[in-house]
Amino acid sequence: xxxxxxxxxxxxxxxxxxxxxxxxxxxxxxxxxxxxxxxxxxxxxxxxxxxxxxxxxxxxxxxxxxxxxxxxxxxxxxxxxxxxxxxxxxxxxxxxxxxxxxxxxxxxxxxxxxxxxxxxxxxxxxxxxxxxxxxxxxxxxxxxxxxxxxxxxxxxxxxxxxxxxxxxxxxxxxxxxxxxxxxxxxxxxxxxxxxxxxxxxxxxxxxxxxxxxxxxxxxxxxxxxxxxxxxxxxxxxxxxxxxxxxxxxxxxxxxxxxxxxxxxxxxxxxxxxxxxxxxxxxxxxxxxxxxxxxxxxxxxxxxxxxxxxxxxxxxxxxxxxxxxxxxxxxxxxxxxxxxxxxxxxxxxxxxxxxxxxxxxxxxxxxxx
Length: 368
Description:
CATH topology: Rossmann fold
Helix content: 40-55%
Number of strands: 13
CATH class: Alpha Beta
Number of domains: 1
Number of helices: 12
């Protein structure tokens, strides 16, 4: 049996070897991730890669978001910069925002406009209108199609259902809408698993059947950049590998669906608590636009089950796009919607709201 000193020496040697191994792993990880070829090769659907990618691009903390019209928000990570007027974006398109960061210059007071109905839109870049001008968004076209109805576009690029819930709770309910309409894009549910997407963001978890919020206040860009420079690259590699396994085995898909349903449950409860009606519009995107089958897709079935069990009004817009295809329409399937896709969505939502008795009235007089 080894003596106590011998055992202690052996333990110290093992500890030293472990430290050396960890240092070599850290050094190798830093060296490898420094090279673009390796960095792009390990790209995955995880917070670690997105955080590191952001840090590589964020030489200037004042310009550390995806778009120049982004602004830091301590609750949601980022928001749309308020007070913009006809700013050139997406190459040749035009962007305006009001004093509270809603797209278009129209000012909406929290107080209701007498005689007008009011609809608040929640969503991601498709609702916000990436790659189109203000007047092309489905929000703008929907307001044109519904005289007497105010459409408030609270869409923000890159948002998941978690950030949409916070936006609704912090701002959306203050407008006292008649309808809260969620523009549902299937991959938004996955964003709820991330702590970083475009930039640092809040995150909910389900603890003992209840939603628990983490990561608020979100760190400011300069602090986040400093933290990332000090972060362990070895730990980030391990996180990337672990997340890839979770995605490949379907674990993250199940987690994302459960979390998304819980977040939408909270949106529905909050909406109904102010006397408004929740509506969810499934927005087909990318290759979904070319799917002409009559049966619901996997993602559509998941939403349909949610709406059925919660008795939430839900409209699936893919049949409208299928009909347009049959009439010779051409869609963009590798990027965001253009004006045509927004118009088709606006018409489909208009018809659904009118059929449900959720839209109508006289056009309000407002300053733009």
